[in-house]
C-alpha cells in the first residue's frame, strides 16, 4: 500500500519540522548560488536567516514563468554545471521554453516521488508499465521511467502515438499499467472498441493520467473503455515534472509529496495566502531539489488544499482536481468560462463524444462561440432530426453549466484532431 510509509504517514509536527529545515536549506542554497534569487532578496532586504518559521515563506517573492524564460537556458543553476546530469524543458509554444536541470540526487528524488505514486495507485513490482507519455524534453515519459526503475517494475518505453502498436503491446505483453495523457487514453479506449478487441484480451488494471485537465465524466469514459481504475497525476516542468502529486485509490484529491514540495494557495489577483479549503492559485516551493531549486513558483493552476488525513492512511496534503488555469480562463460575453466546464456539460449527454473543440471569434463587436462535438457513430448515421435534438440538448447543458449561450455543431466521429500529447481544446481568434 505504501512505498515509504514513514514519509507518507508522518504526523503534522514532524512534517513541519522537516519542511522548515529543508526550506531554510533551500533558501540558503538559492541565495548563495543563484544571482536571480540573491538580487530579489536584496531588493527587499530579505536574508535567508529571516526564514524562521514556515509562515515566513510568505516573505519570499514569487517566481513566475516569465522569470524562468528570462533566465533561459541555465541562468538559475545552483550547482556547478558538471553536477547536472539531465535537462528537460517545456514545449516553448508561447515563447522561450522553461528549463529545469537535475543532479543525480534530484533524479533519485524524482524517481522516489513517482514510485510513491505508482504504489498508491496499486502497482506491484512485477507489473508491466506501458509508458505512453512522450519521451524527450517533455518531462512525462522520463519521469514515469525513472519511477518505474526506482520501483523495480518493468517499463515499456513505448512513448506516445502509433496507436495500433499500443494496442498490440497491451495484448502481447499483458501490460497492467497505462501511463499517458487522459485524452490519449480516451482515444486508445475508442480505438480498442473500434478494432473489436474484447476487454478480456487485455490485462490493464491501472491508468495514471495527467499533463492536461480532465473531468470526472471523462474519467468514467476512460475506465469503461479500457476496464481500468484511473488516477490523476500532477506535476510541472518548472518544479520537477510529474510526481509532485497523485491520487490514491480513494480518488479523493491528489496527495502532494509535501516533504519535497511545499504547497500554498493564493488569491491570483492579490497574491494573498488563502486557508485550506479555499480555491485559488497553487504556489509550489521545491524543498530538496538542488540542481535548480525554485521558490514560490506561481503555477497558474486553480485548485484548493485539504489537510485532513485521507482514508488511505496518508497524511500528506491533498490538492483537489485542477478546475482551470488563471491564464486559460476565457471571458466570453462577460462570462468567465473554463474549458473543463464545457467538457463536463457535454459529457452529461448520451451520444456526445468527449472529443470537442471550442472556437471563439469576434466578427464584429460581439463574441461568437461554436462548440464542435463529435457525435457517436450510431447517432451520426441517424436522421437529421435526432442530431438537431442532440445539439439542443448539448446547448442547454452548456448553458446550465456556464450561463452561456453557444452554437453547437455535431461532427462526424473521429473528424476532430487527436493529440498524442496535450489536447488542444480552444481556438480563440479574437484580437483582444
UniProtKB/TrEMBL annotation:
Where does this protein act, in terms of pathway?
A: Aromatic compound metabolism
Checking SUPFAM superfamilies in the record gives:
Acetyl-CoA synthetase-like
Might you name a Gene Ontology BP term for this protein? phenylacetate catabolic process
Q: Which GO terms describe its molecular function?
A: nucleotide binding; phenylacetate-CoA ligase activity
Show the CDD domains listed in the entry.
PaaK
Record domain AMP-dependent ligase C-terminal: where = 334-430
Family matches, as InterPro entries: Adenylate-forming_Reductase, AMP-bd_C_sf, AMP-dep_Lig_C, AMP-dep_synth/lig_dom, ANL_N_sf, PA_CoA_ligase
Q: Which UniProt keywords apply?
A: Coiled coil, Ligase, Nucleotide-binding
Looking at the record, the residues that make up the AMP-dependent synthetase/ligase domain are: 78-284
Residues annotated as coiled-coil are 6-40
Q: How does it assemble?
A: Monomer.
Q: What is this protein called?
A: Coenzyme F390 synthetase FtsA1
Q: Which organism is it from?
A: Methanobrevibacter millerae
Amino acid at each position: 500500500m505504501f512505498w515509504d510509509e514513514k514519509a507518507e504517514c508522518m504526523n503534522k509536527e514532524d512534517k513541519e519540522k522537516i519542511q522548515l529545515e529543508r526550506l531554510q536549506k533551500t533558501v540558503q542554497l538559492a541565495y548563495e548560488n543563484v544571482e536571480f534569487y540573491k538580487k530579489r532578496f536584496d531588493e527587499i532586504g530579505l536574508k535567508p536567516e529571516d526564514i524562521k518559521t514556515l509562515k515566513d515563506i510568505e516573505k519570499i517573492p514569487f517566481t513566475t514563468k516569465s522569470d524562468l524564460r528570462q533566465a533561459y537556458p541555465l541562468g538559475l543553476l545552483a550547482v556547478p554545471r558538471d553536477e547536472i546530469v539531465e535537462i528537460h524543458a517545456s514545449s516553448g509554444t508561447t515563447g522561450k521554453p522553461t528549463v529545469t536541470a537535475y543532479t543525480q540526487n534530484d533524479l533519485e528524488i524524482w524517481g522516489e516521488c513517482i514510485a510513491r505514486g505508482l504504489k498508491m495507485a496499486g502497482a506491484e513490482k512485477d507489473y508491466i508499465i506501458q509508458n505512453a507519455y512522450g519521451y524527450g524534453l517533455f518531462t512525462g515519459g522520463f519521469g514515469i521511467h525513472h519511477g518505474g526503475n526506482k520501483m523495480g517494475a518493468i517499463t515499456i518505453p513505448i512513448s506516445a502515438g502509433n496507436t495500433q502498436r499500443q494496442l498490440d503491446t497491451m495484448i502481447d505483453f499483458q501490460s497492467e499499467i497505462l501511463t499517458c495523457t487522459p485524452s490519449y487514453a480516451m482515444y486508445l479506449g475508442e480505438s480498442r472498441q473500434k478494432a473489436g478487441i474484447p476487454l478480456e484480451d487485455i490485462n490493464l488494471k491501472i491508468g495514471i493520467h495527467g499533463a492536461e485537465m480532465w473531468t470526472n465524466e471523462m474519467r468514467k469514459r476512460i475506465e469503461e473503455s479500457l476496464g481500468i481504475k484511473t488516477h490523476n497525476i500532477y506535476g510541472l516542468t518548472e518544479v520537477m515534472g510529474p510526481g509532485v502529486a497523485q491520487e490514491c485509490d480513494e480518488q479523493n484529491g491528489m496527495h502532494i509529496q509535501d516533504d519535497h514540495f511545499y504547497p500554498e494557495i493564493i488569491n491570483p489577483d492579490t497574491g494573498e495566502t488563502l486557508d485550506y479549503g479555499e480555491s485559488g492559485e497553487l504556489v509550489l516551493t521545491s524543498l530538496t531539489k538542488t540542481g535548480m531549486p525554485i521558490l514560490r513558483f506561481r503555477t497558474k493552476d486553480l485548485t484548493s488544499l485539504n489537510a485532513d488525513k485521507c482514508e488511505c492512511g496518508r497524511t500528506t496534503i491533498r490538492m483537489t482536481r485542477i478546475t482551470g488555469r488563471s491564464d486559460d480562463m476565457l471571458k466570453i460575453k462577460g462570462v468567465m468560462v473554463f474549458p473543463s466546464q464545457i467538457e463536463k456539460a457535454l459529457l452529461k449527454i448520451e451520444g456526445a463524444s468527449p472529443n470537442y473543440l471550442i472556437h471563439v471569434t469576434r466578427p464584429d463587436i460581439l463574441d461568437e462561440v461554436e462548440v464542435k462535438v463529435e457525435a457517436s457513430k450510431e447517432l451520426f448515421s441517424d436522421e437529421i432530426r435526432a442530431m438537431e435534438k442532440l445539439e439542443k440538448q448539448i446547448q442547454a447543458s452548456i448553458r446550465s453549466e456556464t450561463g452561456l449561450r453557444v452554437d453547437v455543431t455535431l461532427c462526424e466521429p473521429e473528424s476532430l484532431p487527436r493529440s498524442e500529447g496535450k489536447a488542444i481544446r480552444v481556438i480563440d481568434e479574437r484580437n483582444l
